[in-house]
Amino acid sequence: MANVRNLKKDINYVLGDIIEAVYLFEMSTSGQPTPETNALIDEALAAFDALIAKVNAKNVENKKAHFKQISADLEQSANQLIAKINTL
């Protein structure tokens, strides 16, 4: 990992793009939010909060492994959210 700032930017951009995809889906279908799309947005925001909290954790023994795990968690949660968007 290059640095913590880039990891935070990656988290912000990836989850922001997922939320934007949900909004585009809403606009292209009914034009109104549905309970399913609201749940997806809430889930993306919860994932964002959890990942940023992990990045900001100070009591980490092996920082390199910790940040690699955060990056893997980001990829996993993004893939799960994208799969849920595709099923809408």
Structure, explained:
By secondary structure, the chain is mainly α. It has helices at residues 4-28, 35-55, 63-86. Helix 1 packs antiparallel against helix 2, helix 1 runs parallel beside helix 3 (63-86) and helix 2 (35-55) packs antiparallel against helix 3 (63-86). The radius of gyration is 15 Å and the shape is elongated. It starts with a helix and ends with a helix.
Give a quick summary of the entry.
The chain contains 3 helices and no strands.
Order of helices and strands: HHH
Could you tell me the radius of gyration in angstroms? Answer: 15 Å
Query: Structural class of the secondary structure composition?
Result: mainly alpha
Shape category: elongated
The number of helices is 3
What profile does the largest beta sheet have? none
Mean pLDDT: 93
Distance between the termini: 34 Å
Helix coverage percent: over 70%
Extract low-pLDDT stretches.
Answer: none
Strand content: under 5%
Number of strands: 0
